[in-house]
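REQUEST ID: PR-0412
SUBMITTED BY: lab tech R.K.
PRIORITY: routine
TASK: structure prediction, single protein chain
INPUT:
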Amino acid sequence: MSAPVVYPPVVASDGTTLGIVVLVLLAAGLVVLGSVGLWLPALRAAAAGSRAAAPADDTLRARMRRVARRDRYGLGENGRLWLAVSWIAAGVIALVLVIVWVPKVLLQLESSVGVSAYEQGDYERAVQIFENHEDRDPAGWRAYYDEGTAFLARAMAEGDPASADFVTWYAEDAESKLDRAFWSLDDGDVDPTAVERCQVTANARTAKLLLADAAEAELARDPEAFFVSSPDELRAEADDLDAGPC
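STATUS: complete
OUTPUT:
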């Protein structure tokens, strides 16, 4: 059979980087506000000066030091409260960053490694990496699509599906994962773009056609071989998934 177009895996990207930047900037802003609150009372007092005769060293820094000696931090009660609230808020944001966003960043980085392995032809390693994604996001279409695409490329790398050395189970895994990806397109947290939806559909169709050829060849060698769907059923399902070029 002629080699069909197989669309590559996609790197998970759902606004994670932008979300982290926003949270970091917000936390940094709170820290800055807290620092401003730390010295604001001292700056006000120093700017106001003293009605008494000013000492020789009457710079702004010297005034701030004198005020700070009267109050350990140069803060009133409100200033200390302001500082505590700002730092607590920054700590809460940092905690949210660690709990919510960091795992997503690690997943995105791991996804990049899997795509890189796929592009280098190391399909076994790509499958192993994408399997981890499936465990972490069982409702997401991307995990199934990436893993199924790696299985599909691995099956096609074996050569002619009619040959005796063709590994049928790679084609079965590819068809199973990509079919699951197709039916999960609208179930996950991340909606696919029109191009991604087309790529999932196209690869699912390719996997069904590949498995149909492999199953037909296997049944010719061993009539007792079992497949969930017959070659004709697989080809009929593939016809329903004709998405055209993406």
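NOTES: The radius of gyration is 31 Å.
REVIEWED BY: pending
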